[in-house]
# Entry
Amino acid sequence: MNRSKIVVVEDEPDIVEVISYNLKREGYNVLSADRGDEGLNLIRNEAPDLVILDLMLPGMDGLSVCRQMKSDPIVRDVPVIIVSAKGEESDIVIGLEIGADDYLTKPFAPRELLARVKAVLRRGGIKEHQTSERIAIQNLVIDTVRHEVRVNDSPVELTATEFKLLHQLASQPGRAFTREQLLNRVVGLGVVVVDRNIDVHIRAVRKKLGEASGLVQTIRGVGYRMIDA
# Structure
């Protein structure tokens, strides 16, 4: 039985009940809080495997909870899934930029939430097929030591920027990255570049990957992610 510990920070009792019921049925250990400040204390005390976090909370809003988590060395690596009725593109982007791993807009089907939970926990665990030197996703292999990319064992020639971009996406498959996040990681903080340049690089990467191009997915209005295979 799966005993991963999940903290749910949500102030709507009906939603807490639905989330908790479905997670417990899958074998997860579920704790909950209905205030942001209490949720943050619970997270710090329990150091869970995952946090499901609403944005509009009494005591402290969800964005503040997430920011404080990510500035705390003890729990900053705990993944966060935001669930919120605020589904505007700007809200999703802000949530991802402050460190959330995924963003689910209310109302949502319990089955979809469970799929997101499993995907995030899987990314947070040890991936036997991935190391810091080698990443393998379906027919794509990235070797950082040799600075080499192969599709079906055939070499793919990428520029340095394209390689870094592909490696960033592949290093956390399934995670959504905004264009700004990708720019900061690939180009560097403080470098003035139009974020839409990422789109140009992505198109080039996809073209060069050929039949593996579908591994790089577009999240409309947000950015990109590598398929979680």
